[in-house]
Amino acid sequence: MLERYTTPEMQTLWSEENKFKIWQKVEIAVCKAWNQKGQISNENLKQIENSVPVDPLRVVEIDNKVHHDVIAFLTAWNEQDILKEAGRFIHLGLTSSDLIDTALSLLLKETGNLLLTELAELMSIVKGLVLKHKYTLCIGRTHGVHGEATSFGLKMANFYYDLKGCQQRLEWAIKQISVGMFSGPVGTYSNLTPEIEEIACKILNLKPASISTQVISRDRHADFIYALAGLGSIIEKIATELRHLQRTEVLEVEEPFYTGQKGSSSMPHKRNPWRSENLCGLARILRSYLIPALENITLWHERDISHSSTERIYFPDSANLAHFCLKRLKGILKDLQVYPENMQKNLNAFGGIIHSQKVLLALINKGLTREQAYEIVQSCAMQAWNKETGNFYNLICENETIKKLIKPDDLKDLFDTQKDLKFIDHTLKNLGLE
Predict the structure, then answer these.
(1) What string of H, E and C letters represents the secondary structure of 98-144?
(2) Structurally, how many domains does the chain consist of?
(3) Fewest CB atoms within 10 A around its CB: which of 35, 276, 284, 317?
(4) Is 143 a catalytic residue?
(5) In the annotation, is 264 catalytic?
(6) Active-site residue among 143, 269, 301, 426?
(7) Do residue 77 and residue 201 come from a single domain?
(8) By residue range, what is the domain housing residue 356?
(9) pLDDT of 267
């Protein structure tokens, strides 16, 4: 992953140094299981547990000769003097994937928990915007065109709901991936026992996979990547809304613009939504990793390594991208500039034209057919539409048919925008946002 989009937490988690530490942790768990069954003495187990972390550079050096990273790792580990007697028990009965897949599950589990922490903080910020702007009126747009009034808080509540779904999918994906396996070369426990697997997995706080070949089925891994891809799509959804709302002719919200920040190399006035644009681009990359993850489900027989090369790329990259995007969106929303006065100005464009449906329904309730009412209201709306002095309310008040059917006070009441929010508390209660 490019350093620009790498977070310190994920960089540390997915480093080669940490990978080998987790590999040692997995191997030691199996040694403890063998110890419980009397295969490894307490003294030998102590020697294995007291060994030091493997040097990644030494692993690379050996790998350049043997062209097998697990063998290189085991060789480098066994070079420690403390393991002269006990080293022969490391990797006892295992095949490489017993180690690699179980360690990967631990890595993904920790990755998911880091992302859940960041996601919870983001949701807390969004919840704050919901409650702060619950009654901040703004225009709701369909097809990019003014529809009817909504509130900025309700916009944020929709995003909160989306993020809640991301949280639930990620929690489920973590549960799915929290499995280990120690079943040998083709999953038959030829040189181990299910009991060894169960003991070792319990030590690692994993559940034994119900069945495995030489690998854990890759549908679990695809589920995890899908959860991150879905998260990326929701992040892009939020970022896209912010980008639209920051357009000069809209300017209802604005990304933070910090002291010393520059917007353009040529135009000093520019204040661009570059952070949101950045998130939209990164979401495309994050989603793209779902394709190889799904394709990795299909392997030859009990296992081939066609999945291995892609996983070395997309697991750490996806972890970093998802974490980076969450942090960036947190920063945007935490310092988001909201402009209610511009929202009100946009809301009132063309003299309350957004209340056309209320007038339509009022005329229907007075006895007109829907076609008759629609023709009258649309005629007034089209006269007001896209005209600098267009005023839908005045045209409605001047219409002879409407004047006969609706009293002036009742007509004025139809243009009370606040009434559009009368059920907002009901919606927020459904989301637990009271």
Answers:
(1) HHHHHHHHHHHHHHHHHHHHHHHHHHHHHHHHHHHCCCCEEEEEECC
(2) 3
(3) 284
(4) yes
(5) yes
(6) 143
(7) no
(8) 350-417
(9) 86
